[in-house]
Amino acid sequence: MSPAIFAATTIASRLTGVFWRHPKLLLGLLLAPPLLWLGMIYLGSLAALLVQSFYSFDDFSGLVVPEFTLTTYAKLASPANLSIILRTLLMALAVTLASAIIAFPVAYYAARYARGRWKAVFYLGVMLPLWSSYLVKVYAFKLILAKEGIVTWAASATHTDWLLNAALALPFVGGASLSSSYLGTFIVFCYVWLPYMILPMQAAIERVPLGLLEASSDLGANARQTFWTVTLPLALPGVIAGSIFTFSLTLGDYIIPQIIGTSASFIGMAVYQLQGTAGNVPLAAAFAVIPILIMLAYLTLARKAGAFDAL
Amino acid sequence: MPQTPAVTFSAVTRHFGPVKAVDGVDLTVAEGAFFAMLGPSGSGKTTCLRLISGFERPDHGAIHIFGQDVSAVPPHLRNVNTVFQDYALFPHLSVLDNVAYGLMVKGMGKAQRLAKAEAMLDLVKLADYGARKPAQLSGGQRQRVALARALVNEPKVLLLDEPLGALDLKLREAMQDELKALQRRLGLTFIFVTHDQGEALSMADSLAVFDKGKIAQIGTPAQIYTQPATRFVADFVGSSNLLPPALTQALGGPAQWASLRPEALRLADSGPISGVVQSHRYLGTGTRISLTLHGTDLAAFLPAGSPVPAEGSRVTLTFAPEALHLLGDAP
């Protein structure tokens, strides 16, 4: 005759019982390590950064003056520093827009039409660049985009060098060669961040139930109307998620603008140089706070525009 | 002057690979009718519905809606609307915007379409729910929003794909009455798909019973219930005793398959059916008893109030001769 209640024989069995009786205990144990990490290492270091930005740097002694002041932020308003911020912001916007436009058809095809083996091929294709080293990719592009590189050769071989020269002749974004112009920086940024844009978009588009597309067609909407009124609004959170990646990664990047492009400074480069040999940590901290503020503003605008309504 | 039928299928066939989901179906739905397509899962009824709305295209045959061939017409250009089984309400739009959607894509102005949507919500008794989102509604409420969203476009034919499947019994019965009343009031042609034969019998003006992609029988609910054409129909629509030819002969009929409804049998002192009661089932409205005769299990439904024989006791049952209905199946 079997018992009504079994005895807990193993430790695992006893622990399961403990967690069943105290469900919040398990939750607490699971959350504690990541929360500690988040609190101490991430938020803590951000706080330290923020504190530093309110200090000032004495150019003569080369020491940080740990007194609360707003002069460091005032230094950000100088024309040179403002141009750094503006340049970075414009580049981030351009890269985000271009990545979104390139990524959307790819993500749409993968979500709606790719089946079985082709879906695996898609994932592989999108993620393969991520498996190689970031520096290797950037240096490879430096060679590709150089005046003596493959792009120039391909342009002359297909008699499209007029197109290449026209692009290089563009004011401000053009330059002597692709690898020493903003155009080149833009191209490499787009290439490197594209997987981060494609994957969230594809996930969001996939989540739009097919039944809704049928419903909209049943109610008289043609394909274009269905796209704008049903697919896009429902996929928008995914698009925004992808854009957060590209936007914030571009804002903070300091390697790509150094290797490819003009010698002009971007926020990331400025932070790197200021906290390095210069030792001007307060100004570096002030610069570092700017992308955080920009991202907060971006997310608030996105929320106001209803981008997260479908969540 | 004969009216143009609302929907006509002429020898329509649709394959999915080697499977014939719809196999040479001919059917005519009269204008203003409440037409039901009844059958088990996989019998082809939902595929037929999707052929009318345009989400499937026939491999052979032709479909006409009010006399016009729709083979080359995409779904968004057919004046036909569907109430989907899972309602398919747009989660990012409010209830009012959901209902007004069909009018919006046709280019109607905002004030006008919102007014029409309000009127339609009023008709389905959801007048104050316009500002809510679908996620905040109960199943029955979502179903009514889906109905309003389809009806506001004044389609010539309204298609309903198992619309009451997800509702509980009480709500389902209430909605059945509401749908019937709505259809009478608006005078539209309703075509609905269900696997619930009780629902089909009570709501439809005429119904088609589907079996493996073909139509087994079309007729009024009364015709189908009292004069089923085949064993499949007799067994699927209501429960019935299916008598093999030998048993039919023993009960005084020809050597053919026959159907005898359980409620047609009644207790008597003498009669053609005699056996030992094997089981009882109390149903509230009466009791169902079963016994075996010549190797076939027979069920009899004794209405509440009649004496119920005990399990194991011997009973004699009789029936009116016209209750023995001969079926068309080969012996």
Give a quick rundown of the structure:
The complex is a heterodimer of chains A (311) and B (331). By secondary structure, chain A is mainly alpha-helical. Chain A has 14 helices and 2 strands; from the N terminus they run ααββαααααααααααα.
Give a description of the structure.
The complex is a heterodimer of chains A (311) and B (331). By secondary structure, chain A is an all-alpha fold. Chain A has a single domain, classed as MetI-like fold, CATH 1.10.3720. Chain A is 73% helix and 2% strand. Chain A has helices at residues 11-21, 23-53, 71-76, 79-112, 117-131, 134-145, 150-157, 161-168, 182-206, 210-218, 223-252, 256-259, 267-275, 281-304, and strands at residues 56-58, 63-65. The radius of gyration of chain A is 26 Å and the shape is globular. The model of chain A has no long low-confidence stretch (mean pLDDT 89). With 331 residues, chain B is of the alpha+beta class. Chain B has two domains: 7-233, Rossmann fold (3-Layer(aba) Sandwich), CATH 3.40.50.300; 239-326, Nucleic acid-binding proteins (OB fold (Dihydrolipoamide Acetyltransferase, E2P), Beta Barrel). A six-stranded mixed beta sheet of chain B has the order 6-7-8-3-9-10, sandwiched between helices. In chain B, a hairpin with a 2-residue loop joins strand 9 (206-211) and strand 10 (214-219). Chain B is globular, with a radius of gyration of 24 Å. The longest helix of chain B is centred in the middle third of the chain and has 18 residues, at 169-186. The chains are: A mainly alpha (311), B alpha+beta (331).
CATH class of chain A: Mainly Alpha
Mean pLDDT over the residues of chain A: 89
SSE string of chain A: HHEEHHHHHHHHHHHH
Oligomer: heterodimer
Q: Which strand order do you get reading across the main beta sheet of chain A? A: 1-2
- Average pLDDT rating of chain B: 90
Taking the sheet with the most strands of chain A, its summary is:
2 strands, antiparallel
Number of helices of chain A: 14
Strand content of chain A: under 5%
